[in-house]
Amino acid sequence: MEKTLQRDSARKIGSVIAWCLIAALYAFLILLDNVLPANGFTLMLIPVLKKGAIYSLICVSMNLLNGFTGLFSLGQAGFLLVGAYTYAVFSVPAEQHDAVYQYFDGGAIRFSIPETLGKLLGENAGNFLGAVVCIILAGLVAAAFAALIGIPVLRLKSDYLAIATLGFAEIIRAIFQWNSLGPITNGSNMLRKYTNFSDICIGSLKLSTAFPFFISMVCIGLIVLLINSSYGRAFKAVRDDEVAAEAMGISLFKHKMLSFVISSFFAGVGGALLAMYQTTVQANAFKSAMTYEILLIVVIGGIGSVSGSCIASFLYIACNEWWLRFLDSGSVSLFGNTIAVPFFRDGFRKVVFSVLIMVIVLFFSRGIMGDKELSFAGLVRKFQKKKSPDGAKGGAGK
Amino acid sequence: MKKLFALVLAVAMVLALAAPAFADDTITIGVFEPLTGDNGPGGKQETLGMQYANQETPTVEVNGVTYNVELVVADNESSNDKAVSAATELVAKGASIVLGSYGSSVSIAGADTFGEAGVPVIGVTCTNPQVTEGNDHYFRICFTDPGQGAIHAQFAKNTLGASKVYCLGQLGNDYDQGLLNYFQATADELGLKVLKEDFPEGTSDFTAYLTNAKNFGAEVIFAPCSIPYGQLIIQQAASQGMDVVITGPDTWDSNMIMDSVVATGMDVYCTTFYGEGGAPEFEEGFKAYLNGDETALANNGGNDMIAAVSVMGYDAYYVALEAIKAAGSADPAAILKALPDVTYEGATGGIAFGENGDAVRSTAFIKHANAETGAWEAELTDLG
Lengths: 398, 384
Prior knowledge:
The complex is a heterodimer. Chain A contains 16 helices and 6 strands. By secondary structure, chain A is mainly alpha-helical. In chain A, strands 1-4 form a two-stranded antiparallel sheet. Chain A has a two-stranded antiparallel sheet with strand order 2-3. In chain A, strand 2 and strand 3 (205-206) form a beta hairpin. The two termini of chain A are 26 Å apart. Chain B contains 13 helices and 15 strands. In chain B, strand 2 and strand 3 form a beta hairpin.
């Protein structure tokens, strides 16, 4: 009885801490966009935070499939591509069409959802709502593609599924680059000049960093709710033992399909956010290497851990795009003194980064979090346990 | 182990936070180039030109005060999704003006970041019209694809006397597809018959494509693709015993293409920015610089053959200095304002900016690869 009470109180304190931290995070992000001075530190922090938030969503969506349902799919880059293109195609402003679709006489789709909404509701509201509508549309189109290819592909298991989905991603890329579809996809050329993060604001309040965090957090929240629902438990049952799950009355195909389509929906959303971040989209970038990058982050974070994927995303992006860049520059500046290091030259960052990843994969084969979750309730319980050694058992905290 | 890992990360973070403390008498020029990835070799050669120019003229005099010029290089990894953070890094390091990039798509991908920060950029060899179109802060010192595509069509028709041309480009590469588009437009005007095909990325066997070219009766093959594909096409055309002339774009001006030509004896031409012997003083100095620096020599592909992109990089650096002088300060906004009126007589010819911030260039070079001597022979052509 006393233990249950203690658990309840830990949960309450944990959720209060979590909400406070989220509020503090958003306050910081809005300050970062609007008030804080632009110096070397904040300028680099902003893109890393944005991309980290976007990759968190993409990795969690892959984790839903690979970690929670046990479907080893390598088609993520294909769904990102579909999402990114859907978003970009529907948000290029009408006046930019001639410039963007320069080889295709201005393209076939000559309107932009944010612009159309902007005429009705005012520019800022139009950009915000238009972006959200386009993002949801991106998810839906990616989900539709997943539903189509899921029917034949999900009858395959393990390696065969991986090969089939990998092939799918490559085919999608080739189709989007096909010149005959040029009036819509712009063929091999990039889409640009569409609504991006810097267009998102309320009045004069810029939300360019807070927006991707907001969308990612909502989506990851939905995925967590799904995982904790009866569907989520069915997914895990399918992952652990297909025969046993089927004997318990779980329809294998239905649940695999559900997981595949939902995962692709969120990958499509992630693709749309990535398009907003990059400000240009070109099918060429969505190679299988991108899928491996995402898979790597999922493995580093821990297969089957949502919070692990998020932590790993931010760490990976920060190391890759920021912290390790000094290795390329040929020198280190330490407290104002510039020291030339002979090893440090172009491309050395890639070497160090690869070694770091190998160390992680070799020594933390279960990733940062394993299949556990970071929970504030767990941390609180750990703290309570330290205070009274005979207290409640430690929670799921790290 | 975990503690060690945490320690490593912490140290990395501290190093990143230790902001570079530049003195007031330094002006920073950003170099936005691919040093790794598909375009790594070309990006390195372009950077070498800038580094040599920086070594030659490490200071600039603004309003009677001499400032040191420092080059800060950010690797964009030839990848559009890394372009944003590479561009941000240059902005964060206080670049007054940025040079680059080799490869048009990364330039377009990075353009918005520079635009938001108000930092002017000089494109060195990015030839796609979209780089400067709609980007008021983006200038460029090279010719553009519409001109280059037209030159190739005219060259095939008028100089080589061809009536049928086979065009081969990589699917999904905007550079290849853009040039093919402009080639086709001029070829239609001239009454050239054109058969166009695309190959997917990673293709290593071009036999089927070359057979199609043979069946079509092509006298010229125009293949505006990157160097590795160019090498394969030349080698495989030779092994099929094809009697054709192969023409390539500005990327082909490379010692690697020359190696293939020497090995096979094929008849190969390419467009380029600079003709050998155009600036003897520069060539002598640059070769001495390469041979005196082991790293630079390795970055140039192991020999001291001069790539046109290096000369362009050299000129771009001096154009940037001219802009700083004209602006009278290191403030990006002032430089941006002064840039349209900057003119400079460089190793690659006169440089001035016209419409959209594109260079006003009336000439380009067409080079013939001499299989016997292993040297490029340049000819000057008028741009259409």
